[in-house]
Amino acid sequence: MGRYVPSTTTEAWRRERKAMGGRRSRMPKTWGTAELDRLSGDLAGLSVAEQAEALGTSRSSIDRMRAALRARTIDPS
């Protein structure tokens, strides 16, 4: 048994958790349409690092937000 698994867990729970893997371990996104609008508006001319600093988020989040903006302009629904 791994050192981070509490000893009170059952074998069935451990099997289920192992089978689940990383499928549900992702953090929910912390940005929404307001941040996308801001990114496409007054922050549009800045670099990724400058946008990340202005929004208080990571560069990876800016990349995902830019991808969401591209998808939104393709499919406005």
Inertia-based shape = elongated
Q: Which range does the strand content fall in?
A: under 5%
Order of helices and strands: HHHH
- Counting structural domains, the number is 1
Number of strands: 0
Low-confidence stretches: none
- Radius of gyration from the CA trace? 19 Å
Number of helices: 4
How far apart are the first and last residues' alpha carbons, in Å? Answer: 47 Å
Q: How would you state the average pLDDT, rounded?
A: 81
Q: Main beta sheet, described?
A: none
Query: What class would the helix/strand composition place it in?
Result: mainly alpha
Secondary structure: helix percent: 40-55%
Task: Give an overview in words.
The protein has 77 residues and is an all-alpha fold. The protein has helices at residues 11-20, 33-40, 48-55, 59-74. It is elongated. The model has no long low-confidence stretch (mean pLDDT 81).
Q: What are the defining features of this structure?
A:
mainly alpha, 55% helix, 0% strand
What's the helix and strand layout?
Blueprint: H1 11-20, H2 33-40, H3 48-55, H4 59-74
Helix pairs in contact: 2-4, 3-4
Offer a concise description of the structure.
By secondary structure, the chain is mainly alpha-helical. It has one domain. The chain contains 4 helices and no strands.
